[in-house]
Amino acid sequence: MTLKFTLAADSAEAAAVPCIVVGLYEDRALSPAAARVDEHSKGALKRLIESGDATGKLGNATLLFGLAGIASPRVLVTGLGEQKKFDAAAFNRAASESARVLKGLPIASAVSFLTEIDVPGRDDAWKLRTAALAADSQAYRYTATFKPKEKSKTPQFESIAFAGVGENAGSKRALNQATAIANGVRFARELGNLPPNICNPAYIAAQAKKIADAHAGVTLEVLEREQMEKLGMGSLLGVSQGSAHAPKLIVLRWQGAGEKAKPYALVGKGITFDTGGISLKPGAGMEEMKFDMCGAAGVLGAFLAAAELKLALNLVCIVPAVENMPDGNAYRPSDILTSMSGLTIEVLNTDAEGRLILCDALTYAQKFEPQVIIDAATLTGACVVALGKHASGLMTKDDELADQLLASGNLTMDRAWRLPLWDDYQQQLESGFADVANIGGKYAGAITAACFLSRFVNGCRWAHLDIAGTAWEEGRKGLATGRPVPLLTQYLIDRSA
Ligand code: BES
Ligand code: MN
Ligand code: ZN
To answer: Tell me: the pLDDT tens digits for 100-129?
Structure first.
């Protein structure tokens, strides 16, 4: 369950809730709510600053308890950084840090006054969505595969109200959107975090069925191996050969506009575990390859959000779900696969498997005559080298589509950065034995992977998001992030009438 988001109208000193959140700049200026708290508590915040206990540094938060003259027992003073540098990123950080403290307190709800603070170039709706999503992201906990805990008596953090914005239709719509996006993000994170012995291709298909069953207007079709054989999906099936888990091609459709309106198509890489296959990956860090279905999780999450918002557009979401394993029956380097498009592919590395399942999914997507295709995939380590963990790689030849996707990412703090997709790179995919090779050599790996995909989209408006760096947090306890659900959902919201 996501957090519950509401609007609050109380003034800071009068809000009778377990905790209120106010802001403090590094230059000692108080947010309006903080100033009221200071006034009604006879200077408690000024004394706090004098003592040096609160500095206002961005990312710091100080909890005060039992202030005289303030209805709420707790006041969380959140650092906002330098006032003249306060911007969208700082707002997001302050909202996130305050929520991190809130979820650790023995309380179920709070009122945040951070939303009253002006953010240059951003409106109330943006502040509400951003603060709500930051709070929900902090509140998420992964529990699925731990021993069940006895129900604790301390309350769990479950709802947050935002103050200082108009209680109007625009604000309500913003919180609705935030709830839908948060649902999509949570869906993607949970699916991403599950281990591959649970989250196999059939499991992802079962999750898609849950989405279809829960929403009128959503239909599901799951193609089995035999149907994929009939369609000639030799590339996707080649990858699946070494796995004991049957591959699934999951097709969800949302009909939010008239029959004639061409759909938007989302395609997500669903490798439920990537061992590399016969081109086996090294052992260290291989466990992270359970996240190799985060493209699938991301497009399903965005689809879920779009269906919950009943967006006025048609949408088709296609997920090839396959496990990449070494085996006596596995595909091998030098195999030639024949894709559904008819193009033959020389396999030079069985670890470049994502593009091999995506190419057949992209060909299949064109059956729906989509107006746009966007794919999301944890496709290349090279993308992580190029852009690190902050930006997803965006590759498309369509400048307008690129600008729209970049804008959606900027708005939702789920940013992407464009890499070129010039034809100059295509020659790296030449093969002496097939129409195309599945790897492009050591340079520009993220781009040559996109070049490979581009050969299967036949002039359709198409963009590729490489989320290899952004889909999960590094480290032993690193969790799936739910990216690029916010970017994709915002893109769809902006396209719906
Ligand atoms: N799933 C990986 C890409 C990946 C690697 C994502 C590390 C995140 C972190 C993909 O299937 C893969 O193995 N790609 C190869 C391609 C290479 C063989 C051309 C890679 O990036 O090394
Ligand atoms: Mn691989
Ligand atoms: Zn992979």
So the answer is: 999 999 999 999 999 999 999 999 999 999
| Four-point Cα dihedral 89, 191, 306, 391, nearest 10 | 30
pLDDT in tens, 260-269: 999 999 999 9
Q: 486's torsion region: left (phi>0), alpha (psi -120 to 50) or beta?
A: alpha
Report which residue type is found at 230: K
- pTM (2 decimals)? 0.98
Task: Supply 254's token pair.
Answer: 């949302």
CA of 354 to the centre of ligand 3 (A): 5
Q: Name the active-site residue from 129, 253, 355, 455.
A: 355
Name the phi and psi angles at 294, rounded to 5.
Answer: -70, -25
Give the residue, by CA position, lying nearest to ligand 1 atom 6.
468
Q: Of the bound ligands, which one is closest to the alpha carbon of residue 322?
A: 3
Q: Distance from the CA of 274 to the center of ligand 2, in angstroms?
A: 6
> Helix, strand, or coil here: 159?
strand
The one-letter code for the residue type at 316 is V
Q: How far apart are CA 144 and CA 479, in angstroms?
A: 13
Distance, CA of 360 to chain centre? 24
The residue count of the chain comes to 497
The percent of residues above 70 in pLDDT, for the chain, comes to: 100
